[in-house]
Amino acid sequence: MKINFVFAFTFILTVAVMSGCGSGGSSAPAAPPSGAAPPSISAAIAKDGYVTLSWNAVSGAASYNLYWSTTSGVTKANGTKLTGVSSPLNHSGVVNGTAYYYVVTAVNAGGESVESSQATATPVNGVGAADSLYGDQWHLKNTGQSGASGPAGKVGEDINVEPVWTACGTGNTCRGEGVRIAVVDDGLEIAHEDIFANIATGLSYNYVTGSNDPTSAPTDTISGHGTMVAGIVGARDLNGLGVRGVAPRANLVGYNLLQNATTSNEADAMTRSAAAVGVNTNSWGAPDGNGNLWPSNLAWQTAINTGLTTGRGGRGIVYTWAAGNGGTVYVGATVDNSNYDGQANYRGVMAVGAVNDQGTKSSYSERGANLWVSAPGGEFCDTHTITTVDRTGGLGSNTAATAGATDYTNTNYTKCMNGTSAATPVVAGVAALVIQANPNLGWRDVRVILAATARKNDSANAEWAVNGALFHINPNYGFGVVDASTAVTTAQTYTTYLPTEKTYTTSPSSPNLPIPDNDATGVSNTITVSGSGITEVEFVEVTFSAADHTYSGDLLVTLTSPAGTYSSKLAETHGCLGNICTAYSGWVFGSANQLGEAANGNWTLTVKDLGALDTGTFQSWKLKF
After folding, report:
1. What pLDDT was estimated at residue 125?
2. Is residue 169 over pLDDT 90?
3. How far apart, in whole angstroms, are the C-alpha atoms of residue 531 and residue 533?
4. What are phi and psi of 426, to 5 degrees?
C-alpha cells in the first residue's frame, strides 16, 4: 500500500555511530591515541558481496575509524571514511571481483591515531545457491503462478529481467553492481539476512537518532514498509535465501524520513550523498482516497532540482515516485488522480502505476497524465501480491498471526506486499540496471529509454493512443510496463544523448470564461507557442486557475497539443471527501503524454463542468516545457 507521512531489530553488524558525550567534574581525559600505536587489522576475509574485517583493541580508544579505497595506498587523506565502527565489521555493498584496501585508526577525545598497516581483500561470487522463494516472484518471471485466489497469473506478464541477469553469466556487469539506490521510507533493516550484503556500509541515515542505522526498534512493529521496498529493488540473489531484487547486486542505503518527516528532512532525503546516488525511490506521498489536491513544498522542489543537476556526478539522480493508491471508489465517490499529488506530478520524478498478474491496472492504482511507466504491484493478499523480504522475526507485515496462515511460515519474508509502493521500487531497480549498462546516461536519457522501451500491456484497453511522436500512451499505464531487457539493451548502444535541457514558459492567458454548468461542451482557450527552441517536448507543466468554482470535482480539464492526436485528461470529474474539494488556484498539472512532440504551435485547454449545481470561471492558465 502507498503510505503517508506518518510511519517510519537488532543490528547484528557491529557498525555504530558514536554520539557526542562529555564527562562532568574534573576527571582527566583518556590518553590520546594520537601518536600512539594504531590498531592492527588481524583479518580481512573476502565473502560474496562483503568483506569481514577484524582488528585488535587499542587501550584508551573510544571508537575506531575505517578508511577504504579500491586503489592501493589508502590513507586518512584519500580513503572513504566510515566513522565510529567496531570490530568485527562487515563492509558490505561492494563489488565482487574488485580489490578493496583498508586501514583503521583509533579515536578518543584526545584525537585520532595514525593509520594501521594496509589490508586488502577481493570479494568473490558465492556458490550460486538458489533463492528459495524466487519461484513465487511472478513480477520478475511470470510462469502462471497462482495466488491465494483468482485466476493464475498470465504467463509473460512481468518485467522481462531474467535475460539481463543471464547476459553476463556469473560476472559483475549486469545486476546493478556499483549503482547506489536510496530507499526513502519508514526505515530499512540493514542487517536483514537477504539484504545486508548489498547495504553500502555506514551511508544510511536515521532521521530520529542521527545514526547511520535506519533500522526500526524492536518495539516498533509497524514500520516494515521500507524493508519490503528495499527487498523488491535489491535483495541479494543466489545466496540460498528467500528472494532476489530487480537489481540484486546494487548498493542500498536507507533513509527513514517518514519517522521524522519535517520539511527540511524531506528535502535532505532527496539530496543526501547526492553525488554518489544513482536512483532515489519513494513509495510514499499524499494521502489516498480524498479527491483533494496535495501540493509539494518549495524546499522539496528545490531539492529535487538540485539532485537532477548535481546528483550522480552531475548526470542527475533518477527519482521514482509512487503514483498513488486512491484509484478505487472511496466514501463519497472519491477517486484520486495522480495529478492531484504535487510530488508525483513534478517534472523531475517518474510517477509509477501498478499492474496485477494479468497485466491490467491494479484496482487501486491512480490514473493520470503524469504517469511515466507502470510495473507489477499485484492486487491484495487474498488474491495475488508481491513476494519480498520482511522485518526479521515477525516484526513487520508477516507476524505470528499470519505466518503459515495467509503468509509464509518464515516471517523474514512476505508474499503480501502490494500497491504502487511495490511497483515503484521495481522501476527503480530497472533504472539501476540501465545506469549500470551505460553510466554516461543522464537522468533525462534514462527516462526516455524507459518510455521508449516500455511494453504496451493490456492491449485491448480502449484508452491506448499514439501521440505525435509515435509514443504509445494511456492514462492508466503511462507509456506501458517497464521492460528491463529491452531497456538495458537500448542503453548499451545508446548514442542519442539529450542536449542541455531547455525550458520555455508562456505568458499567462486569462480567458475568464464562465464554465457552463452540467454541460458536455465546456469552454476552451488556446495559447500559441512560437520561438521556444524546443523540438522535442520532455514534460509539460500546466498552471491552471478556476478558483471561484464552488466544487472543483465537477471539472474535466483536458490539454490538446499542436500535434492534435490526443487530449490529455489533466483532471477528471470526481468526488471529494466530505464534499469539500480544493479549488484549482494556480494548481500545476504535469503531463508526460506529449513526449517527443514539438512545443511550437497551438495548445488548447478545455474545461468542462460535468456536474449539476456548482459553477465557476475558467480564469487563467499557462504552459511550461
Report:
1. 83
2. no
3. 6
4. -60, -45
Paired with 417 in beta bridges are 386
Cα–Cα dist 500/536, whole Å: 12
E strand or H helix that includes residue 513: strand 513-515
| Contact criterion met (CB below 8 Å) for 433 and 453 | no
Q: What is the pLDDT of residue 333?
A: 64
Mean pLDDT over 233-250 rounds to: 96
CB 373 within 8 A of CB 350: yes
Q: What is the pTM of this model?
A: 0.91
533 C-beta neighbours (distance < 10 Å), count? 10
For residue 77, count CB atoms less than 10 angstroms from its CB and return exposed for 0-12, middle for 13-18, buried for 19 or more: exposed
Mean pLDDT calculated for residue range 369-386:
98
One-letter identity of residue 178: G
Grid cell digits, residue 135: 519461484
All three cell numbers of 357: 498478474
The dihedral through the CA atoms of 122, 125, 131, 135 has a sign that is positive
pLDDT tens for each residue of 402-431: 999 999 999 999 999 999 999 999 999 999
For 286-313, write each residue's pLDDT tens digit.
Answer: 999 899 999 999 999 999 999 999 999 9
List of residues 6+ apart from 230 with CB closer than 8 A? 183, 185, 188, 195, 245, 252, 254, 389, 425
Q: What is the pLDDT of residue 170?
A: 56
Which residue is associated with the grid cell 524507459?
Answer: 450
| Angstrom distance (rounded) from CA 314 to CA 374 | 27
Length of the chain: 625
Backbone φ and ψ for 590, nearest 5 degrees, come out as -120, 145
What ranges make up the beta strands (E) of 299-364? 318-322, 349-355
Q: Which amino acid is at 315?
A: R
**Contact at 8 Å (CB) between 370 and 539?**
no
Mean pLDDT for all residues in the chain: 92
Query: How far is residue 279's CA from residue 395's CA, in Å, rounded to a whole number?
Result: 27
Helix, strand, coil percentages (3-state) for the chain, rounded to 5, are: 15, 25, 55
Q: What is the spatial distance between Cα 541 and Cα 530, in angstroms, rounded to a whole number? A: 17
